[in-house]
Queue: 3 jobs
Job 1
Amino acid sequence: MTTSFSQINKTNDSIVVKSQNEAEVVILYQEYVLDSLVKAKLKNDLLQKTGDSQRRMELQTKLKSIEEKDSLQQAELRRRINTLKLQAKAYAVAPFGDTLFLIYSRILSFSPERRAKDVSKSIKQVYDDPFFEPDSLVLTENEIGTEISYKNQIMVMFVTKIDGLIANKSDRQLADEYLKIIRSALVKEKDANSIASWLKRIGLVILIIAGLCLIIFLINKAFVWINKLLKLSFVKFLNDFTINKVKIFTQVPIMKFVLPLTTILRLIVILITIYLSLPLIFSIFPETKIWATILLQWILGPAGKAVHGIIGFLPDLFTIIVIVFIFRYSIKAMKYYVDLIDKGQIQFKGFDADWAHPTFRILKFFLYAFMIVLIFPYLPLSGSQAFKGVSVFIGALLSLGSSSAIANMVAGLVITYMRPFKVGDRVKIGEITGDVIEKTTLVTRIRTIKNEDITVPNSTVLLSSTTNYSTIAKNEDTGLIIHTTVTIGYSVPWKDMHQALIKAALRTDLILKKPEPFVLQTSLDDFYVSYQINAYTRESNQQEILYSQLHQNIQDCCNEAGIEIMSPHYRYERDGNMTTIPANYLDKDYKAPVFRVKEVGEE
């Protein structure tokens, strides 16, 4: 990596600026000290010159001038020191891992970082002395600062006047503090790495490991006892759970599910115990103490964030609870009035009672949707990009995959308010005929006369023609008309045929006597006349049985009246015989007449 000339110049310029600032601070400090000495001398002279008033006046004038200059110098010195602090970056002196103190200023070409490293290295050199004597660390003052040395052989550190000014102390006071800190750290480190200390640490580690083994043993014992207790509880208290005679779960599957969970939980507890013991072991040795802090941060950091997040979420949680409470009880109050409308105790003009519960479901949906909109901003991470991305993704999936479902839902709403049928009605939707057994938002279920349950999408119901047999059948004035057609030859008087068909209808069960059945002649064809019998009934769900009985009665009544129900291609060139009329409808002494065919020319 190359460095440009301009970059080098900028770096040098910054060093020069900092050096100039430090030099100016030193000059100001020296001037301040000199002025303080002069001010002290003037005060002493004022005390001695008690008789000469003119001399006293001169001394007071000089003293006042120096005091004014002193106040300005103090303000300027403080400003320069604050500027120097802002420009300076602190570097830690940490020869044994822990920070002893910080260095802010440079010395000539030595940066604060280089000074901090050199001081740490010197402290380590002192520590390596096998005959270390704490009292051998001494201070030596000179014109530019105070030196900390060891046995006059190793210069540990040099404290400048700039260092003292930054700490708001003299260089001697600051050096004395640093000396005490360094001496204490060396003594502590020597004691920590003695043979006795190591033996204590090893013994403590062995004690912790033994305690850990004992805790793991007790955890295993506790979970064995818990498993036995669970097995006894399952056998004693937990019976097979059933709903409407349907077994939801039994003892054996529950035991197979719960007992492995306790094993997994036991392993998790053991791993957590071991993990928590590691920081305790690492904290015993100085070299691994940093690992103890890291391991604790891995647990305490996320745990602290979780606790902090939960505590911070409590006001929003309270708001969500209040919103849910208001909407929940508003819907319950609405449900109370909906039930009254459904029972007919409350009536609105133009509003059918059957619309009460469907309308309530629609309103409930929109109320819950509105509630979610209100709650959404209070949810954790609702404003994060990940949450927004997931919301957009789910919305896209719903919009792409639910087009047919939405069409059926809209059709279900339209059908609800059209009221083409109700549950229990006999209907015909397209080619499907049966009784409506269920109406949902998406589909309509129909049970045919053959006990076939057919599910019809509501969109299909809306697009198909729907015939409702039950609506008119419940009308007390009329009823449902059932009808069937019989073809009879022209030789049978139509009045006789009308009478036979009406008689057959009145003989059929579930056919109303009032209004009376009636006959319509629907066509006059080449070989026969089409007679349609129409009769009223209120049992729309029994049409198949009605038609079967009606057809049987038509056969009986026609046979009783001597009327043959002929096929269209039956020729009338025959005498009546027993091939078309059963024997029990003929006279006991009936004999079939002779059927004679004459040829042309025969006499």
Job 2
Amino acid sequence: MAAGRAAAGVVSRTALLERLRTSARVTMVSASPGSGKTVLLRSWVGEPDLANRAAWVMAAREERDPQRFWLSVVHALQGTAAGSVLVQPVLAAPGLDGWALVERLLTDLASLDERLWLVIDDVHELGPDQALRQLELLVLRAPPQLRFVLAARHEVRLGLHRLRLDGQLTEIRVADLRFTPAEAQQLFAAAGVELSESAAGMLHERTEGWAAGLRMAALSLAGHPEPERFAEEFSGSERTVAEYLLAEVLDRVSDEVRLLLLRTAILERVNGELADLLTGSNSGERILQDLEQANAFVVSLDAARTWFRYHQMFAGLLALELRRTEPEGVGGLHHAASAWFTAHGYPVEAIRHAQAAPDWDLAAGLLADHWPSLYLDGQAEVVRELLAGFPRDASQADARLLAIAAAGELEYGSVEAAEQYLGLAERATASVPRTRPPQAQLLLGIVRLVVARQRGNVPAVAGEADRLQAMSEALDTAPARLGEDLRGLALLSLAMTEYWTSRFADADRHLDQAVELAGRIGRPFLEFSGLAYKALSGTRRSFGQVAEDCRQVIDLARRHGWADEPPAALAYGVLGGTLTWRGQLGEAEAWVQRAERTLRAEAEPAQLAGTRYIRGALELARGHDADALAALQTAERVSMQLAAPHFLALPARVLRVRALVRVGESEQAAHALAELDERQRDRGEIRAAAAALHLAHDDPCAAIAELGPVLDGSAPVDWLPWSAQGFILEAIARDTLGDQDAARRALERALDLAEPDGMLLVFLLDPAPDLLERHSGYRTAHAALIADILSLLRGVMGPGGAGGYGGTDNPPVSRGGLGGIVPPRITDPLLDSEIRVLRYLPTNLTLPEIARELHVSHNTVKTHIRSLFTKLGAHRRAEAVDRARALGLLAPAARRH
């Protein structure tokens, strides 16, 4: 290894380092493999003036998945002085959206006021997929103090042409990285190789200054008996040279180093202990560190230089040589690696090596053992990738894998598809060896629990929870914490099902227990899910507290990368519903849209019913009665498909009756009321809906009679807004009959109930602007509230201030938590294709350039922009960007210096 250490001699590349020091906002280092990109950048980043000011990320093949890549970027930025203050931590979660992470980074770094470099090596490994497009967006919209240095083996489509035209792009290409003859001679001298000037010149000419070729040549030449002859014979294409030099290196190094290089070639990453296991040696860490120091195909992955990976080109060649020399031993090496990773708490790598062995039974067993933990940590996307690594015949015949596939459908597909996989898994258990039934049954039990939860079946959830607990205690081989994990999952599942099915006291108790347990056993994603449902539970108590709880859950989701998970969608919807009831319609629209975009409708039917109910209430508040009717019909239909009635089924019927009355379908409204049983028909909210129908028929006396039990408290009303609505309807009826005193008393009572939590929606459902105007002239305790209601009504009903809805589509602008003025309304949810176009609007790209970057036609981009302008209520590109930022659809603008 003396030669290897000598080959690590530093060659000063002063001119290139100076170009990096004085580079533009973006530096692109693009050159063929082995051209010295990484060595150059590491030398530059290692300079004292860049300490704590440069974040280093090395992309890898697995980072074609945006989640892993962006987690690496966030972690690297947090390691810098500025990033440690500005960049919030992120935890892995299923389906983590790279676009959302980019927007989050733009938000976190918007206030960056000192120079910070983000260095990304091997950018080409990101491929043509989402991660590369997301990186492009970050580069184009980053604050000016964030500088990028990007290294790739070949040109990548990053849309940097505008930066080039603006003089903001520094490019270092293969010609720039080629070693000069003098640098090559310096390299050979540092390696202890004595070559004549002509021989050194010949090697430089043959390699064309290719850095890796020169270093490999120097490594092979050290101690070579005939260096001049070697130099003369050194030739061939890049591939030939690489293969030839690899053979020369393997032949020249000690048997110990050769064995380590070959046997560890099966690994994506290696440390000394793992290398020793595969080689039977005890010097793995020393060899790896020597190889890394010598730049001999090895790159350290951490600051302590304990984990390493091989250069991708040579790792492939080493693996090829291993298969040639030890074909019968490759499977055993994968088996040993799998066992090591299992023992050291790296289950995903353990499963991958079992698959590579290939030992499908071992791989399936490992995945089955660790799936509960992966599931509870929100690693559904990783599980999906592992499942794809099994051959079809193995995955279709193994009950454990079928159960895990069913869980995947519950996460990303539909309850129906999950039940199909569940049926296959249950039938497959008959053929499971006797050693495996408990494990298979445990997985099936977890999936049955989740299916029962999503079907709203409380008894089934409780039964499966008890069976799972008993089963986990009976499994001798189960991980020690499995029992607590399953208890946490069971408690949360039970609470969720109880809440959707109106068992509120039980739900609150189980939610408290689930959140406390999740925090105690270190399951942050489980705790996050419980907190989202606690926010929902609070709607029965205090709107003000609910809004605060929802914002805390949303902030938690943003910080940990869970913004696209079902619990986050729940928080968006509940916040949107709360703001709707408080009359903050502009801000409510933004959050309801986020809930609709995030919700996995087929996999979360109970949540879908709740979201459609909130949409219906919001559209009723605006006077968009037909839209409200469609949403409420969906809410009712979905809620009735659950095993037990959804707690919003009856409120949705109430609002549907109100919508039918508004659109003039009184007969259908009466039929909707007649369908209810006697117990439901006597509830206060239903009596209020019937009273509204009587008023539509100009029968105030019948309305007052209908409201009697609501007003005296004898009709059950489980939510305060319905009581307030009863008094508003009484006030309208009394006013119609000319009983002004009684009308004032009823209206004052409605205002008394609405004031504490700002429940303004009830005054939009039954608008009475003239009555409120007159009431403000009398002695009332709610003059300010009346002024707010009248202002809101004028915005909804138009300049006339009376005469029903329909005057405008633009309710008053409200201020909320989205950074200032919120646009009044988005007419329809944004499509994914529109969101992709929207993200490019803050850049300087023209429409044809955006079309090229998105690989669509110019006309398609124009169509999407017209639609965006309509939905955002904008007329210009800048106006659309401002409104999208106000709604939280784009990150805030970076502060310019």
Job 3
Amino acid sequence: MPPGSADTPLTLDALTPAWRPAVVPGTVATMLRQENGGELDLERVPDLDAVDWWYRCHASAELPAAGERVVLCFDGLATLADVWVNGSPVLNSENMFIRHEVDITGLVGVDTDIVIRFRSLRAALDSRRPRPRWRTKLVEHQQLRWHRTTLLGRMPGWSPPVRAVGPWRAVRLERRTLCEIVAGDLVPSSDATTNVVRAAVTVRPIGSTTIRGATLVVGDQRVALTVSSPDGLSGDVVISGTLTHPMAERWWPHTHGAQPRYDARVVVQTSGGDTEIGFGAIGFRQISADRSNDGFAVAINGTPVFCRGACWTTPDVVSLSAPASTYRALLVLARDAGMNMIRVGGTMVYESDAFYDLCDELGILVWQDFMFANMDYPAADSAFATAVGREVDDVLARLSRHPSLAVLCGNSEVEQQTAMLGMDRELWTNSIFSELLPSACAVGASGIPYLPSSPTGGVLPFHVDVGVSHYFGVGAYLRPLDDARRSNVRFTSECLGFSNVPEPAMVDALLPNGESAFHHPRWKARVPRDHGPGWDFEDVRDHYLVELFGVDPMRLRYADIQRYLALSRIVTAEVMARTIGEWRRAGSTCRGAIVWFFQDLWAGAGWGVVDSTGRPKAAYYGLKRAMQPVAVAITDEGANGLYAHVANDRSDELHAVLDVAMLRGASTIVVSKSTRIVVPGRGSSSIAVDDVVGGFHDSAYAFRFGPPGHDAVIVTLRDHSGAVLSEAVQFTATRSTARTDDVSVSAHARQLSAEVVEIVVKASRFADSVAIDCGDYIADDNYFHIAPGTERTVIARAARSGAKFTGFVQPLNSHDGVRIVMSNADVASGAPAG
């Protein structure tokens, strides 16, 4: 409806609107997608902020019983919402991040009408407000700073123009008896020797119910709590106390240990019987931040953790949510890649409870921004500050119990934005980030490290050698790969943003009928870019295509677009893997690296290392090799030759064998030597390649006494059984892009179960960046190298139920690929697999 055309359900009915079925929880865009058979053209979504949207629900229910309360609960309304029940106004909300509960006991009838109006945000943006002291190019409208809503859909060049409007979180009608929880949570904490749970829960008796006592239960431990009535007028009862759990095991990120958790609940004894308040599974871990020597590092249970992972987006930009199964699939991908931290940035949304529960279960730390980014927020406005305070309290009450919660951050890039605009230092922050948020966090999430902004610290907040940075030296700023060391990065909560090319099937789906990528309007519309500069992130990728492969991107696109796309997939994977390996080596100043970002918001060559459907890209596999708990990397130390660096996050000392092979051409092994190494638990070690091979071979090709004696160095880390733990390859000079007919690759598969296939790829000669395309299956490894005369075993799992396995293997240095031959197609599945 046009903005303001109706101001009550009665005046709306007079306009005889046409009602349409809607999904709740969901957004208006979810409804539009549903109407279109599950598809929505993200490039042609109308401006959903431009009009008023009305939702209506008719509920039939029994009248409230004596002593029963009926409560209407809203977990999230985006964004300017008014609610009526049976014609009576009951709620006004102007913050999509706040949960609401409304007592409608006196309004409920046998037939109950619930009506929600979502007022036009566009009309509100156009109303007169004080101007910001500075402007940002990130968003489409400067006055978004006044409104507590997500910036997704409102950032040109970053996300599809799908604006969040509607009941995006659950709406529930609850009937409550005996008592209800008003406020509070359980807060687990640990120090060097003790595990403690502190309970502070306020409950409200219903009707004539009296509270007689309460018990806190955590796993097999229980303790009686104190019950008091500090405010006799309201009747609210405060339940408080502390439980010490001496036998509880510590929770660790998955790279460093296990994730034991304990069911926690408060049992309230009332005059009408017992009632339980469940708080889910909690974990015990000690957390701290080391800010010494101008750095930033996270320690869990007293152990420094190299935090690595990616910035989270949302599984579905249309609904801003997803089923728990979708969250699980994505977070399992992150865990399997060796990622132990996910950052939920200030341009996104606070995630669902399922997300945080899964991070607890899977051992993935969460860096949580509050939802502020790049703008001059009106901190001096008392109403705005009050609303922010309520939002923060609500968020902390929901998240503080989670052992995965590792860092709380006031905003994304507010300090950087103002500093880059040349503003005075006193304008870099405001009282929200310097006073309100840290004070609230100290109470609601005691012990969790807080940062006012990301990035922050140093002479300028975007300098990377102090505090927390957003590092794009390797990346948007086109610096050479060794800049990752020379810049002395300390902790980068955003880094390595590239336009990562998706798999061929995604390219074909995006550009049907054989249309070519790169200059196609749809392709370019989905390449990420900052608003203003005359370049995009595909130009950034092309720069490193020249650096690594020595090819002219334009000439290559003219001659062979598929070859261009194949090389483009590899280049971002290798640049990311090399940089992470550099930062994890012994002696590095870096203590954390969070890649920008995990999943694309829509189909295309976006920043995501996983595409919008949840399928990994080549960049994902590059990171997966570099981020594993036990990983080997190679660095070029110039005249000192190549060095191998082994990282070991496990608690046990690593006893392994390090193989070094120097390869000339595709099949000649010039040198092959091994050495035994010992790497301390939760430590790292470095060893010179020259020390392993013994003698001078100019491993880094630094002295250049004639042509190089080898083209690649392969370093393989094995356990004492011979199983490969990790492998890295360093090419001596500019990477060859030549193709041959003589790579001699074969691939055979066997079905392990209905939805799991084992693939064995063999090569008689060196196979470069072997790409596996297995249709509706997802391989656990891809784009790997195979040394001459060796093989690689890969497990592929069905991406959907009933998927049919078909497979094709293509080395980068081969003209032709080979089909994967299935040896027992009908085993377990009962049907041919391909």
